[in-house]
Amino acid sequence: xxxxxxxxxxxxxxxxxxxxxxxxxxxxxxxxxxxxxxxxxxxxxxxxxxxxxxxxxxxxxxxxxxxxxxxxxxxxxxxxxxxxxxxxxxxxxxxxxxxxxxxxxxxxxxxxxxxxxxxxxxxxxxxxxxxxxxxxxxxxxxxxxxxxxxxxxxxxxxxxxxxxxxxxxxxxxxxxxxxxxxxxxxxxxxxxxxxxxxxxxxxxxxxxxxxxxxxxx
Length: 217
Hints:
The protein is of the alpha+beta class. The protein folds into 2 domains: 2-126, no CATH class; 132-216, SH3 type barrels, CATH 2.30.30. The chain has 8 helices and 11 strands. It has helices spanning 2-15, 21-35, 53-63, 73-83, 91-103, 108-125, 132-135, 149-168; strands at residues 43-46, 49-52, 70-71, 105-106, 128-129, 173-178, 184-189, 192-195, 198-201, 206-208, 212-216. A hairpin with a 5-residue loop joins strand 6 (173-178) and strand 7. The chain starts with a helix and ends with a strand.
């Protein structure tokens, strides 16, 4: 317990999160996530649709701290931070947001604020779809797009899993790839092979691992 308390103190300091009541729930979530107290997969399937488990769990935690179980503007702000965490919105996150709108109670100001903010953010962050063939003559970002070692390790494991899945089931896997001009494109391939610092896609096209922002399995 002493060790956990010390870790929690370090997390609080490193995240620079204040002790205001409005941010206390986020503090708990960040601490639990980093201490691995929460044991859950990244995705959660509800009614046959893949959802972001972290956002669902956060919403459930937030409504337990309100008198009538409503999502307030402050709560909506915390949820928006989680939605924006990946820097791009995916089908999984769209499914999750739609589920929250349909199944959770929101105050009118919170709903209006969230919809407005989400629309503005989607316009600025929308992924550019691109085929594997179109990717063939593009130049890629020269530095690693992931700055965190944990995220780099996770990317490596996901790419290895994606390679196995395409070899066994030939499923299409989505990759977010950053180009030299700064755009992030989404490419789907039913063949992925990892070789050292490069990933080979369908048709023999190669992409540096360091240019890959996200792997969607």
